[in-house]
Recover the amino acids of this structure.
């Protein structure tokens, strides 16, 4: 199974989680400026910005096709309890790309909220999540 990790991170929270997922999968996490070529699973990370995903994430997702990505596994960070799963689903609904029901949302530090997050425990949760996703696909 071919797997890739891509992320968009303004403050570094989502990047930390992406790198933890990639480390567990023994691959490299790259930001969304790097195209995706023919993968079975794409772990896609972003955060909520003004109650939606950033326009750069929307543009990245719009560049994906069912020919180069079979399934997206969403993960996100947020100062609130918000997940980007539903927003990413809206972006791909007409693309015939599967969005996994398995998704992860980790608290992220923003201003005075969630100081120190994602922390070591969150990183461990992200690594376990990645391995659980792979196990579910075997």
């Amino acid at each position: 199974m071919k797997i890739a990790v891509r992320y968009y991170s303004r403050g570094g929270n989502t990047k930390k989680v992406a790198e933890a997922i990639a480390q567990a999968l023994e691959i490299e996490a790259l930001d969304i400026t790097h195209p995706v070529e023919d993968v079975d699973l794409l772990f896609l990370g972003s955060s909520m910005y003004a109650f939606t995903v950033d326009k750069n994430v929307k543009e990245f997702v719009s560049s994906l096709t069912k020919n180069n990505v079979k399934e997206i596994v969403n993960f996100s960070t947020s100062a609130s309890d918000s997940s980007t799963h539903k927003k990413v689903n809206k972006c791909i609904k007409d693309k015939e790309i599967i969005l996994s029901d398995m998704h992860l949302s980790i608290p992220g530090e923003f201003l005075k909220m969630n100081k120190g997050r994602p922390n070591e425990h969150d990183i461990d949760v992200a690594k376990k999540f990645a391995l659980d996703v792979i196990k579910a696909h075997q």
Summary: The radius of gyration is 14 Å.
